[in-house]
Amino acid sequence: MLTRTKDEEKTLKVVGTRPVRPDGEPKVTGLAQYGADFSLPGMLWAKILRSPHAHARIRAIDASRALALPGVKAVITGADFMEQPFEYVGPERVAVNYWHMTRNIMAREKALYEGHAVAAVAAVSPAVAAAALKLIDVDYEVLPHVIDVDAAMAPDAPLLFEDMITRGVEPAPTRPSNVSKQIDFRLGDADAAFAAADEVVEMSFKTAPVHQGYIEPHACLARIGADGQGELWSASQGHFVVRAYTAKLLGMEIGNLLVHPAEIGGGFGGKTVIYVEPVAAMLSRKTGHPVKIMMSREDVFRATGPTSGASMTVRIGVKKDGRIVAARGVFRFQAGAFPGSPVMNACMCAFAPYDIANVHTTGYDVVCNRPKAAAYRAPGSPISAFAVESVLDVLAGKIGMDPLALRLKNAARTGTQTAYGPKHAHDGYAETVEALMKHPAYKLPLGRNQGRGVASGYWFNGGGESAATVHINEDGSVVIATGSMDIGGSRASMAMMAAETLGVPYEKVRSTVADTGSVGYNHVTGGSRVTYATGIAVVDACRKIIDDLRGRAAQIWDVNPSGVVWEEGHARPASAEVGDFAPLSLKAIAAKRAVTGGPIVAEAAVNAGGMAPGFATQFCDVEVDPETGAVKILRFVAAQDVGRAIHPSYVEGQIQGAVAQGIGWALNEEYIYDKNGRLSNAGFLDYRIPVASDLPSFDVVMVAVPNPNHPFGVKGVGEVGIVPPMAAIANAIQQATGTRMTELPMSPPRLLAALDSAEGA
Amino acid sequence: MSDIRFETPATAEAAVALLAGATGTAKLLAGGTDLLIQMRGGMVEPALLVSVKNIAEMNMIATHAGEFRIGASMSCMALIENADFVAAWPGVIDAVKLIGSVQVKGRASVGGNVCNASPAADSVPALIAAGARAVIAGPDGRRELAVEQLGIGPGRNALARGEIVTSFILPRRPARSGDAYLRFTPRTEMDIAVVGVGVNITLDERGVCCAARVGLGAVAERALLVPEAAAALVGTAVDDAALARLAGAASAACRPIDDKRGTKAFRIKVAGVLARRAAEIAKQRALEAS
Amino acid sequence: MAKHHVTTTINGNPVEYLCETRQTLLEVLRDELDMTGTKEGCGTGDCGACSVTLDGRLVCSCLVLGVEAAGKAVGTIEGMAEGGGLHVLQRKFLEHAALQCGICTPGFLVAARSLLEANPDPSEEEVRYWLAGNLCRCTGYQKIIEAVLDAAREMREA
Amino acid sequence: MPPAQPARVVLTTGFSQRHTGGVKEFSVEPGTLRGVIKAMDARFPGLGDILEEETTVAIDGEIHEVVYSQPIRPGCEVFFLPKIESG
Fold first, then answer.
1. Which residues of B touch A628 (CB under 8 A)?
2. Could you tell me the fold of the domain covering C88-157?
3. Given Cys at both, which of A445, A570, A678, C2 links A583, Cβ 3.0 to 4.6 Å?
4. What is the pTM of this model?
């Protein structure tokens, strides 16, 4: 394994500049191919029949009328998929249970939410497939359902799984419930420590599930041959993971499935899991034809993962001087129809920005009749932060302390003990708070009905497995292949890090995302890990290439390789003793490729550690219309520790996008269910993500505390920006109106009702 | 699975004949921005679509002695681009500008917005306030109907089988008069009115309101003409006291439901608020017009 | 079932195709003509990813029937780059990093071009309102707005 | 030469309740992470696989994936925590 040089402040030529991304032109000309853009000869179109009921036993499915329709080639149900063992595989936080996964792909004994897939049709055209769905007869026994998390935890709640015993409780409960798991993290003795506090505030909060809202619906094209080998074109955040899941559910060897990475039209965590891929593959296996599936927007809302809604209670105690002495958090998360909410993250991140000696967090993972929750940008952290950062704002008011000063006083730093175990190994949080304290807009006066709110956020950031291959072509140009899906410019950052390492111009380097047969395993593009982990793999591969090039230059000069150094894209003699040779360029060495040993290629694979967490602190100014409850965002200032920005424009873009999503989460986004447990706003008209005219321009403050464990100081930047906005806006609304909102979204009807009741009171 | 017959008649009478004579579900296709969504969702499965885009009178705007005749299927964008109409009926334009995105307004028509009879349709309260009349062609010839009488319930209109709205007539704009439309939506654009209010007032030489019409949307099973609200303004200088009475009357006229877009209480209160604000804008426009 | 034989013009070229009445222009472009640059984000006119121009007017192709294109002129993203070079808007989107995933980009470009044809010197607010019918979940819109304003500036000076 | 100062292995409460009878702290020979895992597996047969598959390790707070070759310095804290992953 190559040793990583510490980030000495050398002058960087490429890193930190803003070149055009290598994959840019096809994306502005319409030529880039996304999940729905692939076709093959003889291709069939598939559509999925979905449950109209929130909770129902499936007594029987009769597809005979559908199969009789001309043009229908096959119908499949859950029975077509092999059974999977019931076991939680892998790490507790993200355990996979294939017994659950195969049932989420296609219902078996029961439909557990409206939109749950129950059958699928492959036909010669989308219209025929749609007509066939109407001819599939499903005999349902409708069961009582439960949507709300508190209702699902009630003793008399309808059970989704009659045999579910809560995990993580000693001794194990005897009665089944909808609580899949309970987890606790303890540091010191919180309960006792509250006694020492001068002020204690306890409040309860609720948040609504929100959808990732990527604009591209899930889509894929599958071809499974009679020889048992198959190909899949899929838009996902990780085609290696799509391959592993799909192969497992179809009982294939992983090596028999080749997955091509389609361009992905947004994911934000929601495309780290699979929905349509095994269905298309099974239909292809059954028909012998390629099969294409495109979800409708309604399917996306009804059947793919939003993040959890939650019910929370948070209690924090402070001294008069602002020191936090104790914190307690109870977080109840909707998992949706199958276990696996991000509640554990919520517990771990809730108080992570702060140095608190006594902390106790408890989390509950609760199933209910909604689509299974999927990851969404810093999963779990924004939800617990809404509660924690709101309570901190109340405490700051009670002790008359500036909310930023309160946070700075308690800021976690290197060496601070976290409640979930290890000590912080990186700074960066305090710097984001200080950046806002220094920000000119923080002191600007506010007008009538206006308020300013502050909040912070924490996210782990990821590392993990990545592989990269670097080729030097005979003309000296460079090609990089990685297996990390490019969601927002990572091809550019990979090319920039390679160009910087090799000492060649950015334009000489082409960066590609390779299929599962052409490059080593790469874990998903998620957890803000790609520029960090895959970046390290790319730099490692480039360093191997440099060693190879030095060796080839040594052959050309007929000297010892140790006498050759690599500087600014050229091989040079290490000293005069080596000899008087003119520097050899990459191009010159590449021209001697054959005689110096053949193809110039290097691979590197890493399981990267040493990643630094993401810290963000933000403030926003809002204006509330006291007669309608409408909230206008006047200003939003977002400070974030970015380590070092490889391509600053794309780092700014990540932060701007995260803030916009947070604003939607805070003000308007929610799942609205009717009394039958049916989603009544399954579309972009009534599921209101922000539009361009809703938002101001944001002020992004990039704080740079480089991570010494990355050759260029990178820290993950993709996620933490979505953690603070909900609390920041709630705190601003409180200052503007004197009313404290504790439930999301803070939509006009809800805010106006709160304002009027406050008036009445 | 049978395909849909598609016709593009050149006259309103031919369209009426097709619709009246059809067996099975027959639908008029103007902008299509509601119909295509209903067809996609399987709520409507027509056997016949009659496109009226080739019918000249339904796709043009004409003016005669200060009276405007708007083709029922001309696109909202075409109407917004008509400088004379924008100058005469800024309140109607306020509403038409809110009928969806630029893309949707490139297809959607005022006729469709009215005839789909959504209680939340933006153009309807403004047209009601404007005193607009619909020109209807049918098997028994032509007739006119006040816009407030066209909608009778959610998705239900007063047209008989085979009848179509060919155009809307807006009366000559008196001196010292102005109109305005305001709606409430959670987003600034791309949204459906939770409450919509159209106000049209005329002032006399002394600045006293001598005529007023108020239309309310999204607060009942159909858009409403609210004479009580208008009465609160007539005879006043549209001062704070009158505006407060207007707000009270507007709120009192609401009979809303709770739904995914808003609560009863919210709609009732905001109807009054927006009526007051719209009247202030209409008054300002009336003063500028004099 | 009998299909309609439609003769139309797409990006200046004469085109003929067969379609059913129920097929939208979006479906015809993508599924019959392999012009997949026009994207489906919702199918209900709420996201703008399928924006095209019809006789010069900006529309959602998911809200137009394929048969309605007969005798009209359709403009799609595939027709935006002139000759060998990119349209100014396309270049500015790249320079300003105005796309992350890129799925909404074709719709934004088609909508922005029609804005600048109608209003060569829009304010930021005018750009934000004109583009309100195009959803983007990645960027928070800021770099898109900056790219459009910068393109408008360059096109005015040209 | 005196024996090297041992390294300190720490587990979360939940993890220790499930796998080590509630004991949260152990001291082991420094060297590499492979050695640490072998030592833990020797005390609790089967624990080695679980540590490899289900945890991320924080060495003096610095988060690392579980990789055998990871050096473990004398006196450092080796904290096994649930694997970090996400959206």
1. 184, 270, 273
2. DNA polymerase; domain 1 (1.10.150)
3. A570
4. 0.96
